[in-house]
Amino acid sequence: MSPLMVLTSLSITDIEAGNSLPRGTVMFDSHCHLGDVSESKEALRRAARAGVRSVLCCGYDGASNERVLALRKELPNLAVAIGLHPWFAQQAIDPVVAAIRREQPSAIGEIGLERSERYGLPAPATQRHVFEIQLQLAAELKLPVTVHSFGAISLVLEVVAAFPNVRGALHAYAGSLEQVKVLLNRGWKVGLGGSVTRAGARRIRRLACALPLDAILLETDCPSMAVGTRPAAEVRPEHLVEVADCLAILRGISVDSLVEQTNASARELFGANVVDSTHLG
Ligand SMILES: [Zn+2]
């Protein structure tokens, strides 16, 4: 298949028939929302069996932050991020700041900015205020961030430029490589997920091939992003394997080397937390 054919026509069936992870491989789902999944422990058990033994479990508002912290109580090795997402920027930021200080999460997130027609989206100034408070906190506590930038990448770059010591991941980024080069040079990463598995997703697949390998993190954003033909609501961290298989085929490299590099990047940024399956019984 020519590179262009791969970019446009690779389907989930090709992926399932393609590479498969070697036994003993450990993968890192760098952005998911297991607090939104009713059977989160079972999902983690299945993920561990599939080789996805590390996850960064993200909250996004007061209630979801509480849920991921409760999950961490049961699974002490679970890496969690807590923060206030731009959709919920009208909620009180002070309790979120207090929780971040008290709970010592692995990262602050999901935070960021959105510019879209989404109904009820908080005002730009409110979003920016809340984002800046959390970036300031990340700088002070030396914590990485996981950032939502839908429709707002230029603005995210502008705001983040004022926090040169903060590093993080642009989760579900779908813009161009050119735009984010400045952040990559500062050690930021780009999270790629289920959208690379969609045949016809040419733009995101171009980005996925153009990014330096050491700039990529793998993520599912479960249960908010489809993988192949599987609807978002059914996606769990175990399906990260399909994202890795697809990306390895797109880039023409072995899934082994892709997993090794993306894992190293995720661990370097977020820490080496591993969900120990003995806690899942
Ligand atoms: Zn998310």
Short description:
The chain has an 8-stranded parallel sheet. By secondary structure, it is an alpha/beta fold.
Q: What tags apply to this protein structure?
A:
TIM Barrel; disordered N terminus; single chain; binds zinc ion; alpha/beta; globular; about 280 residues
**What topology, given as strand order, has the largest sheet?**
1-2-3-4-5-6-7-8
Task: Write the element-wise H/E pattern from the N-terminal end onward.
Answer: HHEHEHEHEHEHEHEHEHH
**Judging from the principal axes of the Cα atoms, what is the shape?**
globular
Amino- and carboxy-terminal Cα gap:
45 Å
- CATH homolog superfamily: Metal-dependent hydrolases
% residues in beta strands: 5-15%
Structural write-up:
With 281 residues, this protein is α/β, with parallel strands linked by helices. It has one domain: TIM Barrel (Alpha-Beta Barrel). Helix content is 42%, strand content 14%. The protein has eleven helices and eight strands. The chain is globular and about 45 Å long. The model is unreliable at 1-6 and 11-19 (pLDDT under 50). Zinc ion binds next to loops.
List the helices and strands and how they pair.
Elements: H1 3-9, H2 12-17, E1 27-32, H3 40-50, E2 52-58, H4 62-74, E3 79-82, H5 94-103, E4 107-112, H6 124-141, E5 145-148, H7 153-160, E6 168-171, H8 177-184, E7 189-192, H9 202-210, E8 216-218, H10 240-251, H11 255-270
Parallel strand pairs: 1-2, 2-3, 3-4, 4-5, 5-6, 6-7, 7-8
